[in-house]
Each structure stands twice: as C-alpha cells, then as structure tokens.
Fold:
Amino acid sequence: MSIDLLNNAQTAAEIHQEARQWLRTWIKPGLKLFDIAESLEAKVKELANYDEKEPWKAGLAFPTGLSVNSCAAHWTPSFRSNELLKQSDLCKIDFGVHVNGTIIDSAFTVAFDPIYDEFLKIGKEATYTGIKMAGPDQILGEIGEEIQEFIESHEIEIHNKIYPLKSIGELSGHQIDQWQIHSGKAVPNIKIDYNERMLPGEFYAIETFPSTGSGKVRHGLDTSHYMINYYNDLNIKDLPKKERKLFDKIFLERNTLAFCKRWFQREKDEIPDKFFRKLVSKKFIKSYPPLYDTGNGLVVQFEHTLYITEDGKMVLSDC
Ligand code: MN
Ligand code: MN
Structure:
C-alpha cells in the first residue's frame, strides 16, 4: 500500500469537507438544483486546483447527486433542468473528490422542515453502525445484518402517521480503488450470506439508505450518470466518427471516473443525448439511471469513505 494513495485521499477528504461546509452556509429552498450542483462543482474544482490541461490530477470524482425525496441515488440536474429545491424536500447530496484518481465518496442529507430531524439522526446512526464495525478481518455480511437490524428497529412519525423504516438492500457500500469508484467488494445494507472480509490497505465507502417506503428500488428514465466501461476491450474503430470523438473527449477528461451528460452538453454544438445512448448500446460506457423507492417512500443517505489500517480504520471524510 503506497503512502501516496493515503496522502491523496486525505487531501481529497479535506477538499470534500471544506466544500460541504461552504455549501451548508447558503443552501436553501427556492434555489435551482442546477445552480446548487454547478456551484458546488465549481467550488470543488477551485479547492482542488483543477486544471483542464491536466484533468486527471485532481477534481470531481463523479457528478453531484442531488437525489430528492423518493429518489435514493444517481440523480443530477440535466443542462436544461429547472427544478427548485423545496422547503419540504429531503435532498441527498452525494459528491466526490479525487486526487490522482484516489477518490473520496461522501454524502449527507439536508432537510429544512424539523419534522425530519429524527429521520436524519437515524440515517446518520445507521451509517455509523457500519463504520464502527469496520476494520481488518471484519466480515462484510455481518455489517449488513447490523445495519438492517438498526434501521428496521426504528419507525418515524410524519404528519401524525407512523412509518416503519426499511433498509434499501439493492444499494450498498463498496470498496474503492484508484480510478474505480465501485471495485471488488461490497458493504451490504441487509443480511445476506457474504463472507468476504475487509483487509488492511483497502478503501471503503459505507453508505446506508433508510426508507419510509418499500425498501425496493426501480430505475428512473432520466439517466444522467455514466462511466467508461473499465473492462471494455472493444475496438474504438467500431464506433462512428462522432461517437468516437465524444468517447475520446470523455476519456481524456475523465479516465474511468463517472461523469454526467451535463458536463459535455454546455458547448455551442451541443452533443445530443442519442450519442450517449449509442456509446451505452455499444458497451463503451455504462449508464447508472436514478433509483427510486418503489413505494414512493422518503429516503435518507449518509456516507463516508474509510481506510482500513492494520489495527482499525481511519474515517477519512469525517475529518
Ligand atoms: Mn456517494
Ligand atoms: Mn458510494
């Protein structure tokens, strides 16, 4: 394990912390989700000294998730979206910072109505239930069992109605490698038979998703998140010229880090959505559609990135 990776992760974690503390000073209902995402992303780039001539050095690890209410993950505004953040919203803000491909993935949920205070507290504690267990030799399946037990032993009251909480099992924490947000092992959020262990030198994101709904998710149609297929051994020459140009542009800017259409559609000759669809159908990139609770439940999320040491862990993003 190189010391460099850990140093880079710590630098990325400090940038993440500064950016989210700054965001909390001004985020409020009535703002456009588009403006929130773009402002936060500009701040991260500024703090990371992002250089368009050397885009792989440091910057955004993936698009800013602004998943609202029953959307659990993977929603970011499109270039033309006009949606506003509302007073009654629960908004999961999930953003990532990388330094030389070493990624910090961390998320929190904001709400403006105090009716959700208890729900947010349970969400935070659910993630810390997992974080507390993390360490060398920890069996990952056991973490899922504890997280589920914690979440599902709670219920919350909203407008005089009681909702039992469910842990969304189709979403999980994950190991992180350099340039790979989801690598190797998972950190489940439900009890499953999974005997893989955490090992020293590994990075993990632990993230939990308590829901007032079904705890099951469905894909939405408005896909915004994509990533170059790591395992792609396809021939770039099989692509039509325009799609090849887009693929080259994406790779030069992002390597194998996630991206969204918005980042590539701001120029005068706007790249049509069908070009992205073509790259997906040819398996050069993978799409990650937004995920919604099937029971229309409200979902909260908290997430931190950890480093496993010989005798414990470092919670990098909680610096
Ligand atoms: Mn995340
Ligand atoms: Mn994650």
DSSP finds six helices and 18 strands in the chain.
